[in-house]
Amino acid sequence: MGEELNVIWKEICSNVKEQVSSDTFKRWFSSTRLVEADEDSLSVQIPNHIYGLWIESNYMAILNHSVMQVIGQPRKINWRANSVEESNEAEDLNTSSSENTEASIIKPAAKSKAKSNTQKSIIHASDDRIEKLVRKVGLNKNHRFDTFVVGSNNEYACAAAHAVAKGNSEGYNPLFIWGGPGLGKTHLLHAIGYEHVKREPKARVVYMTCEQFTNEFIDAIQNSSLTKFRNKYRKADLLLVDDIHFLAGKEKSQEEFFHTFNMICDGRRQIVLTSDRPAAENADLEERIVSRCEWGLTAGLELPDLETRLAILRKKMAMWQVTLEDRIVEFLADRIRKSVRRLEGAMMRLASYSSLSGKSLTDEVIEGLLKDILREEGRRRVTIPSIQKEVAAHFDVRVADMSSRGRRSDVAFARQVAMYLSRTMTDHSLVEIGRAFGRDHGTVIHAVKKVEERMENSQDLRYKVSLLGTRLSNV
Description:
Blueprint: H1 3-17, H2 22-28, E1 33-37, E2 41-46, H3 49-58, H4 60-71, E3 76-81, H5 84-93, H6 98-106, H7 128-137, H8 155-165, E4 175-179, H9 185-199, E5 205-209, H10 210-222, H11 226-234, E6 238-242, H12 251-266, E7 270-275, H13 287-293, E8 297-301, H14 306-320, H15 326-335, H16 340-357, H17 363-369, H18 371-379, H19 384-395, H20 409-425, H21 430-436, H22 441-457, H23 459-473
Parallel strand pairs: 2-3, 4-7, 4-8, 5-6, 6-7
Antiparallel strand pairs: 1-2
């Protein structure tokens, strides 16, 4: 493989590595390599087709953004699963001149090299024009409505998303979708964008994460390019905003977003936002932004039931050409309940192991491969009553003191620790936690901040909280 290809791919992967966990990068990206490039596409070699499918479904936006940063323009990614034939092709590429390689990657106007007739790509778009538009916006083309499994936990949010995508969204502006990690918020957001691009190819669709918005805002200030930055977002016909909670505590970014929001809505254009919690529970979001998030329609995503989890697994298996025994599918659906993303990840981990090793998936092998996921699932089943009981025993106070009106300093502090653990170890909302302690959600916010501040300055408290968390996880 040409040295230029190595350098380019190493730089792209370096950008990806900054945005994903070390385990994710090692598992899905470390075994990839760039084997061919031209002005339209990059051909990336992977161990088997599962890698391409998983990256396409979960990390394509990150990969596309990294390609843009390094090369300067979007490129279609073609996946090549390892085979003898493809290995020979890769070897042949070593003899390509560095001059041709560099020109094909770096210079958009360069003439495209003829592609090998034997080149294989897992992903084929039915409409190249739509695919290019979707890629330019930064959307994942696999996150469509037809790949979203609808159940009782998400049918309301899905119906609202459909209405917005079709333009039948009067009274739905903004559409605010909230739910825990891995429940499908980003999938619906991308599906809205994808459908809108198909319906109105000339519309100006802008997708952004709030982290991206903040970083670009800072760059615009430093480079005196605020006008360009504002034009990008404020002239959108459809603005898709992922992870609005990321703006919490960032006063200048919130002010900029506030004015962007107003201009979009005043122009009767559509905004869709996602968050990991209801707008009112984002403690450090300004009240004026919270109120605007609540102007239109709010739709929550709940945890999927067993039937929905089974349907998700079977649909993904069909899409990704993965085969697992029924007993394994049922095991996954029964044991992994809190996150669809984690459920799909577990399935792909087992399928990848089976494909690469050729070994059968025994119960012992499954438990070993999914040890970290199953441990995390167990940890997340902690309840507020169990937290109250464990904390009361540790601090030598009564369980009844957790919800009493008593203000003794030892009781008040134990109560704050219990609230902190309830917030970090359960999926309950601030309102639900407050109710369990006989308080309002504002008291819970204060308690969490207080404990976090004290933990920063006290190694002893950090140890105690960690010990309590470990005990609760092992209950």
